[in-house]
Amino acid sequence: MVSKKTFQLFRKIAKAEGISFLLLLFIAMPLKYFMSMPIAVTIVGGIHGALFIAFCIWLYLTHVEYKKTWGWSTKAFLASIIPFGTIYMDRYWKEEIRS
């Protein structure tokens, strides 16, 4: 039996990565370009980068441990590079944990 911890942690990291992506796009980038505050992108971008790397690592771990298909993993990866993607996909991932 496979534990649900890896998948639950994957979901949490995916949410955090998605939120950091939105903060980067809709808060930090406008601050940089409209208010001349490049430090906002430096800080939020660094946090987002670390979360994206963690997302990729946990995506791989989830893929291996739960024997996910390459299609599932590709869809999850694409969700991470589309704004609101991981937040949207979380509904489906939540249902996968329940079943």
Q: How would you explain this protein's 3D organization?
A:
The chain is an all-alpha fold and 99 residues long. It has one domain. It has helices spanning 5-35, 38-65, 70-80, 85-98. It is elongated, with a radius of gyration of 15 Å. The mean pLDDT is 94.
List the helices and strands and how they pair.
Blueprint: H1 5-35, H2 38-65, H3 70-80, H4 85-98
Rg over CA atoms, rounded to whole Å, is 15 Å
The major β-sheet equals: none
What's the count of strands?
0
- Form type: elongated
Mean pLDDT: 94
Strand percent estimate: under 5%
* Secondary-structure element series: HHHH
End-to-end C-alpha gap: 13 Å
**Structural class by SSE content:** mainly alpha
Low-confidence stretches: none
Domain count: 1
Number of helical segments with 4 or more residues: 4
Helix content: over 70%
Brief digest:
This protein is an all-alpha fold.
Provide keyphrases for this structure.
85% helix, mainly alpha, 99 residues
